[in-house]
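Problem 12. The chain below contains 655 residues. Write out its predicted structure in token notation.
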Amino acid sequence: MNLTKILRNHSRKLLMVFMGLLLVAFLIPDAIQGLGSRERGYVRQYGQAFGRQIKDRDLDQARGDAQILTRAGLENIPEGAVRHYYLLSQEAQRLGIRVGREEVKAFLVTLGQQSPFWQPPEQRLKELQRASRRSYNEIYDAIGRWLAIDGLTARQATGLINTLPRQELAYRDRMQEADARLAIVDDKAFLAHVPEPTEEQLQAFFDECKGRRKAHTEAELVFGYLLEDRVQIEYLTVDPRKITGQVTVQAAQVRRYFEENASRYTKPDPLTTQPVDGRFPQVPMTFEEARDRAREDFRAARAIEVAQSLVNQMYNEAHRPWSTMPRDEAGFSEAPPDEPVSFRDLQQRFSGTYDITYGQTGLMDARQLRELPEFGMAGMLMGQQLVELSELALRVKGILEADPRDNKPVLNVMEPAVVLTYMRDPRTRQWSSPQQAYLFRVTDARPSAPLDEMGPRREDVVADWRLAQARELARQHAEALAARAREVGLAAAIEEATELKQILAEADLAASGPTPMPSQAQSHFAQDLEPFTPQRLTRSSTFIQPRVGMVKDLPREIFALAEAPVDEAAPHRAAVFPQADQHRWIVAELVEIKPLYAGPFEEQLAASLLDARQRGEEMRQFGRLWGQPDYVAQRTRFVPPEWAQPARDQAPEAP
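Solution.
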């Protein structure tokens, strides 16, 4: 049959097929384009930096680098910190800071020589290559980008620390001394002169303070009665110490435990009769010698494992309804529709061979949570950072405000979580050896709020009101004393202040009576008024002896008196300074500022430039500041994405 006849007999069918192919040819590009647009719609925006949008694909390399660095043990970069690491990496790249592969190899060799915990580079790289499934060059490049960030920080630090003007200023603040006379006027000495408050005065004072927290500073007293954020908790735990006697161990397990921990079992060398450096040399014990110790050590370790396993099983039961629930943009999981698993039921179901402890608290703030015996010391370990129970329990929906820079875990009310108590290795200062596990959940969360009425804090309100009034009386006397000191000098002004001295003497007498007031016990009000010269007063002083103690701004303010105008009627440089958080006023007279000489400064400058330890610490301090998220965000002009809540506080200025 020829081709012409085939075409003629099937022309209608062929025409339909041809038209169908044309239709597909026209529709497929539109379908592909639509699919592409939908794909683009699903790409998550992570904000804007360097004048452009940051998307998922931009962070892919940073995620890969983070995995390699974490596996290599160089730096733990959790998922929540990948964006921050990306910004740092891009910043270094855009400024032309790059570290080549040969430099990375040299770095790894040096690291292996200096760190006893770092395996030889060849062995570590092989393990890293197998675990990450990356080529050696990809691993070198990832470490190189990490080193470039460190290199940029070092270059910036070199240009900012240890400059001559900074050295001169630091030397002046540390070494230049002032000759000054000080006197103390204590607020509490005036409590006896404060009348009892009226109900109207108390209510007005309470209304003023009820919406804020107590926050005294050197400058002023700030009373507050705002209730702190509080949560109520219930928990289940198995105490390993209580079940140790119930744990059975086998001889083979004890021997294996001894062999794995042989370095722990030593005895004094019997051939040595004299100690070396105060200690007798140790030699290994045989298994027969250490059998009893090893058995009890293994039994204790096994009890910890059993206890944690039970807690993990209960957690799996309690968390199962939560495991499939979606999380919102702030990271909070939605609550399951069904009733939460009862902790009391879990206690009964899993109690058998071993006792399970159930506990619950009342509403507690962070301080009260920290004070809970043992449970208050538990936490969730993230890298080498321990998120303590007192923080984790308050990271709950209804209290915690969302922050896109935050990568710590968050909880919903009734959402179960596990915290553990840890031991810190005294040799490495690293967290290790979890001891006791606690399954807990927040059953009630109350955000910070003002008290509805004064009643529960009435005694505190009365005491605070009286102290505020006493402070005002003390201020009036201190300012009058300073004004007179500017005319005749501080010593002469105190000699003339007969009324003030009488008040202070009466307060001392009342404090030493048969029923002294607690706030006035062991007072020395009159003695503190006598002028004295600080032992060594510099601008950077943080402790003034005698009498004053810890200070913050006072030394610089005393030095600043040298710049105050002086007239003939008031030739002395004197002023009064608040020490509100210590409930007193300091009246100070500056006599002179002692001069500095170039020779000692030049000698110290030369010594400081040679002090590698001091310079290294300054570099580390700058590095911590340089890498802070707020500063990085400012330098890179980072703008959070629309789905993220904007930061609550304004970022500080970049260094």
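Discussion. Residues 164-172+598-619 form one domain. Students who got a different answer should revisit the alignment rule from Section 12.3.
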